[in-house]
UniProtKB/TrEMBL annotation:
<dbReference type="InterPro" id="IPR028375">
    <property type="entry name" value="KA1/Ssp2_C"/>
</dbReference>
<feature type="binding site">
    <location>
        <position position="50"/>
    </location>
    <ligand>
        <name>ATP</name>
    </ligand>
</feature>
<keyword id="KW-0067">ATP-binding</keyword>
<dbReference type="GO" id="GO:0005524">
    <property type="term" value="F:ATP binding"/>
</dbReference>
<dbReference type="InterPro" id="IPR017441">
    <property type="entry name" value="Protein_kinase_ATP_BS"/>
</dbReference>
<keyword id="KW-0547">Nucleotide-binding</keyword>
<dbReference type="GO" id="GO:0004674">
    <property type="term" value="F:protein serine/threonine kinase activity"/>
</dbReference>
<protein>
    <recommendedName>
        <fullName>non-specific serine/threonine protein kinase</fullName>
        <ecNumber>2.7.11.1</ecNumber>
    </recommendedName>
</protein>
<feature type="domain" description="Protein kinase">
    <location>
        <begin position="21"/>
        <end position="273"/>
    </location>
</feature>
<feature type="domain" description="KA1">
    <location>
        <begin position="434"/>
        <end position="482"/>
    </location>
</feature>
<dbReference type="InterPro" id="IPR000719">
    <property type="entry name" value="Prot_kinase_dom"/>
</dbReference>
<dbReference type="GO" id="GO:0035556">
    <property type="term" value="P:intracellular signal transduction"/>
</dbReference>
<dbReference type="InterPro" id="IPR008271">
    <property type="entry name" value="Ser/Thr_kinase_AS"/>
</dbReference>
<comment type="similarity">
    <text>Belongs to the protein kinase superfamily. CAMK Ser/Thr protein kinase family. SNF1 subfamily.</text>
</comment>
<dbReference type="InterPro" id="IPR001772">
    <property type="entry name" value="KA1_dom"/>
</dbReference>
<keyword id="KW-0808">Transferase</keyword>
<keyword id="KW-0418">Kinase</keyword>
Length: 483
């Protein structure tokens, strides 16, 4: 009796919190809460609602993970990335309304089918790369790409999920957190070395491609230290059944040296990837702000017909505000695009610059202030100024080895003390002896790949006067001249 009463009370509470949804069956349980199937009342379309219990996520120490995923998914609109429609908060729970995907994990699909044909594997891989490229264009690194975090819809198209370990790239800042699943993690990640970000996703995509075409993992060992050793050495075998082009692409992605690892533009130009590529995937997708400028007139009219004010709908869309109107709009839009190619071919009209705010507005996160730290809001051009460290970047097309050789020569000439942290990462200490107070400056140098054949030497002040840092940068530039 008490159980029925508790269940009815819980259902009544959800109905009051989620009046725009008709809650259905439970899709799954987790240690943090549950996922329910629901119908959106205004449009009739199905959604999945993730119910996160605040007390449980606090006990499990995953509050930061939940915050990060919610913030990042608010930025992303792509046919191969799971859609987050809205977030509703109560003192006890967080309700995350998501796109409903029907056909399970890519992992289970691979286990069931074994290795895929190269045509089918390529079809899925092209979609994965398009989604990952879109993330990188919006300065988001996933950091936990694996078949378990890729879902399949009813048409066997992929949706990238689980952005809880993702991070946002900022100019002059390098990620140092070792995270993700060991079998899919890049050598620099498990070694604890700093990394720019995109290159670790490329490695994980290489492991996924291997799994698609071979039916097993390139790096696998029950003994974790042995697994790490294989990854760090890049020790794996390519089966004979792979085509010449696949045998060429996989090693380029699983290159131990991150600076020599192929980039997404390089993958796009590779003949294996380009074979039979759908038109909508043949060009890089629009970034979030560009997409927000485009509205579908027919869908707008459908939303207006359901009782919403036209100007309110358009203003909410272009400013990327999540509310009842935009939820209805995107549910209707997504249901129309029954195949991903429709995603970039709808009847779009571009909004003029006068009505568009290029930064993510405060209203975008103000609906759940207890969950989001406003000091870490995500701007489209990564305008986060949290620690205000000064940075300088020098670009070059020379070989990484030659760049580092010239850097070491310059540091020696400037009498800079340095300590090598990684292959392309140096911590430095410099005393400005010509200055009366002889201030000590500490800074860090890191070389990373910008694009195919282009590298950036990043110089970041760690401690010491800003103007002394600028003096040092000028002196270093004079020493380096050209690489």
């Amino acid at each position: 009796m008490s159980m029925d009463g508790s269940s009815n009370k819980s259902s009544s509470k959800r109905a009051s919190v989620l009046p725009n949804y008709k809650i259905g069956k439970t899709l799954g349980y987790g240690s943090f809460g549950k996922v329910k199937l629901a119908d959106h009342v205004a449009t009739g379309h199905k959604v999945a609602i993730k119910i996160l219990n605040r007390e449980k996520i606090k006990k499990m120490e995953i509050v930061e993970k939940v915050e990060r995923e919610i913030k990042i998914l608010r930025l992303l609109m792509h046919p191969h990335i799971i859609r987050q429609y809205e977030v509703i908060e109560t003192p006890e729970d967080i309700y995350v309304v998501m796109e409903y995907v029907t056909s399970g994990e890519l992992f289970d699909y691979i286990v069931e089918k074994g290795r895929l044909t190269e045509d089918e594997g390529r079809h899925l891989f092209q979609q994965i790369i398009s989604g990952v490229e879109y993330c990188h264009r919006n300065r988001v690194v996933h950091r936990d790409l694996k078949p378990e975090n890729i879902l399949l819809d009813s048409k066997c198209n992929i949706k990238i999920v689980d952005f809880g370990l993702s991070n946002v790239m900022r100019d002059g800042h390098f990620l140092k957190t070792s995270c993700g699943s060991p079998n899919y993690a890049a050598p620099e990640v498990i070694s604890g070395k700093p990394y720019a970000g995109p290159e670790v996703d490329i490695w994980s995509c290489g492991v996924i491609l291997y799994a698609l075409l071979c039916g097993n993992l390139p790096f696998d060992d029950v003994v974790v230290p042995s697994l790490f050793s294989k990854i760090k050495r890049g020790e794996y075998t390519l089966p004979d059944h792979l085509s010449y082009e696949a045998r060429d692409l996989i090693p380029r992605m699983l290159m131990v040296d991150p600076l020599l690892r192929i980039s997404i533009p390089g993958i796009r130009q590779h003949p294996w990837f380009n074979n039979q590529i759908p038109l909508y995937l043949a060009v890089p997708p629009l970034d979030t702000t560009e997409q927000a400028r485009k509205i579908d007139e027919e869908i707008i009219q459908e939303v207006v017909n359901k009782g919403f004010d036209r100007n309110h709908v358009i203003e909410s869309l272009v400013n990327m505000i999540q509310n009842e109107a935009t939820v209805a709009y995107y549910l209707l839009l997504d249901s129309r695009r029954r195949v991903p190619s429709d995603y970039f071919q709808s009847n779009f009209k571009e909004i003029s610059d006068g009505t568009f705010n290029s930064t993510i507005p405060v209203q975008m996160v103000a609906s759940f202030p207890a969950l989001i730290n406003h000091d870490h809001m995500l701007g489209q051009r990564s305008r986060v100024n949290a620690d205000k460290n000064w940075t300088l970047g020098i670009q070059s097309q020379a070989h990484p080895r030659d760049i580092m050789t010239e850097v070491f020569k310059a540091l020696q000439n400037l009498k800079v003390c340095w300590k090598k942290i990684g292959l392309y990462n140096i911590k430095c200490r410099w005393v400005h002896k010509s200055h009366i107070s002889q201030p000590v400056l500490k800074f860090e140098l890191q070389l990373y790949k910008v694009s195919e054949g282009k590298y950036l030497l990043d110089i970041q002040r760690a401690d010491g006067p800003h103007f002394i840092f600028l003096d040092l940068c000028v002196a270093l530039l004079r020493e380096l001249r050209v690489f």
